[in-house]
Specification:
Chain lengths: ~280, ~280
């Protein structure tokens, strides 16, 4: 099969639509993950998702059901227990360990083929069906809609919680809302890159964007752009050259952060020269 | 406030507090760490409720989200975050609590006015992280005053600033009071840098609140009574008063039947009393 034939096959097309939806949602939510320094929470929710998916597979349900239940549950738990950003670390850690333990139990109970586990951990982008695309797109659109409507209060609570509370925003409610957004985004991202590589779309593009610009709205747009570029290019390289798509996406997203650091470092050097 | 008391987590923070704050005046709130200074601000902001007594804020019971009350927090994550300029942060003071897509056309003008008032225009578009401590406090004052509040609450605005920056911020607080006519409440741990602009002092210690002019509160009789320990105020040759706790009291801890409140926060209370206070007598 030639490259153009490969790209027009239905499983690549499904992957293309799914990856587009996921990248946009992950880029936008990722901005707040990096801003609020909650990368650990994002990491934990992904791993909790692993337990959920493993449990669902054991019970003979679709993995995404288990993912949604467990990720949302963990998100709300972390949101309630660690509403003030200071105490969230321990809450996240305990939630993470408890869920991983459950995951180990579910896998040992499930005596079937380990392929299901593998695809949860590392993603299975080229196995996405039309039904999956619809669900992923709907969830991603929902996340983007809520983020756009709550953008200012989320930003306010993240950068100055005390003033935000004084102005009438509830820290706890906002924290819960954000964790729910993060949970849903994680669920859809796991479909593409798997539990272990959720970070590639959630954290790396947003971190790169925040290095490159000091304006919040621009950083959100840039994070979405970098995530989308990594996802599209990663899918293309996976189909063209071979190798797991999730590897390519992760490699590209991480490289974007490296490049961003280099570019901002060069900017600083140039500025120093101008003043020297 | 009339006869106000606050209980948090079963512990009485302070009680029997009565005071009044006039428009256009500056009130310094002083006292040891943990004595309930920030709690006072939280009461006015409607984040904490009185367990006894009554409090009126601008003629109404305190309620959250009151635009007529401006607030500047002591620590703000924005200061050390990447990706936030002064303009962005001040903008959040304007429409940060608002949900939805709408944009308010007045925002630009309001921000421009706040920048001009606080002298922050020239560095408004730089990341907060790259600014000096004094510049960040100016930006935070702009954030707190976007709605020209009638009551402005400042939590430790001078903390960790060098002397020159402290003087600058004190001048700016005075300027904001003069141009907006707001009543200003400043929580501080040191009266010294504020003494020149302060009209009233609220001193909180051992679960009591004393209010009055600087002369009425900062004298040997009132402070000794407030702390339950003898306190000496020395007048320097240049007319400044230096406040010290008497050392022999600390060599014999708990000799008095009333060590409760004092011993509770003993570390801070000791260091607080050992600190040297100066202030103008004129």
């Amino acid at each position: 099969m030639t490259l153009s034939q490969l790209l027009s096959t239905s499983f690549v097309q499904h992957a293309f639509y799914a990856v587009t939806a996921v990248a946009l949602a992950a880029g936008a939510v990722g901005y707040f993950v990096v801003l609020r320094r909650q990368a650990f929470a994002a990491h934990a929710i992904g791993h909790v998702g692993f337990a959920g998916a493993a449990g669902a597979v054991w019970l003979g349900l679709s993995p995404i059901t288990g993912l949604l239940v467990f990720c949302l549950g963990a998100g709300l738990l972390i949101g309630v227990g660690g509403a003030s950003l200071d105490e969230s670390d321990a809450v996240v850690g305990v939630t993470l360990t408890a869920a991983l333990g459950l995951g180990v139990l579910f896998i040992s109970l499930y005596s079937g083929y380990a392929n299901a586990t593998y695809s949860i951990l590392f993603g299975q982008i080229l196995g996405v069906t039309w039904g999956d695309v619809g669900l992923v797109a709907a969830l991603s659109l929902g996340v983007l809609l809520v983020v756009s409507l709550t953008y200012r209060p989320l930003l306010f609570v993240s950068v100055d919680a005390q003033s935000a509370a004084a102005r009438g925003l509830s820290i706890r409610t906002m924290s819960l809302l954000f964790m729910a957004l993060l949970a849903v985004t994680t669920v859809v991202a796991i479909q593409i890159v798997g539990v272990l590589l959720v970070f590639s779309l959630l954290v790396a593009p947003a971190a790169a964007a925040q290095v490159l610009t000091s304006r919040p709205l621009r950083a959100v747009a840039l994070a979405m752009t970098i995530a989308l570029a990594s996802a599209w290019l990663g899918l293309f390289l996976g189909v063209w050259i071979g190798g797991p798509v999730s590897f390519w996406i992760t490699a590209l997203a991480s490289s974007s952060y490296l490049v961003a650091r280099l570019v901002s470092g060069m900017r600083v050097v140039r500025r120093r020269r101008v003043f020297a | 406030m009339e006869n106000g008391a606050v209980v948090l987590g079963g512990r009485t923070i302070w009680k029997s507090a009565s005071f009044r704050i006039e428009p256009g005046t500056i009130t310094a709130v002083l006292g040891p760490n943990g004595s309930g200074k920030t709690t006072l601000l939280n009461l006015i902001l409607g984040l904490v409720s009185l367990s006894d007594g009554s409090l009126d804020v601008l003629g109404a019971p305190p309620h959250r989200g009151n635009r007529r009350v401006g607030f500047m927090a002591q620590t703000r994550a924005a200061d050390t975050m990447s990706g936030m300029t002064g303009r962005d942060y001040i903008g959040l003071g304007f429409d940060g609590p608002r949900f939805g897509w709408g944009r308010d056309k007045a925002k630009r003008d309001v921000i421009r006015r706040a920048l001009a008032l606080t002298g922050t225009t020239s560095f408004a578009d730089q990341p907060l992280r790259s600014l000096s401590g004094g510049q960040r406090q100016r930006v935070a004052l702009a954030h707190a005053t976007v709605f020209k509040p009638e009551l402005l609450l400042l939590d430790e605005p001078l903390v960790s600033l060098d002397l020159a920056a402290q003087a600058e911020i004190v001048d700016l607080i005075n300027l904001i009071r003069d141009t907006t006519g707001a009543a200003v409440i400043v929580v501080a741990h040191d009266l010294n840098p504020l003494a020149s602009i302060v009209d009233q002092v609220l001193w909180i210690a051992r679960r009591q609140v004393r209010s009055g002019t600087v002369d009425e509160v900062v004298n040997e009789a009132v402070l000794s009574d407030l702390y339950g320990h003898p306190i000496e105020i020395i007048v320097t040759p240049r007319g400044r008063r230096v406040i010290v706790g008497l050392e022999e009291e600390f060599a014999h801890p708990h000799p008095h039947p009333h060590p409760k409140g004092f011993v509770h926060g003993d570390e801070s209370a000791h260091s607080h009393l050992s600190e040297v206070y100066e202030e103008e007598t004129t």
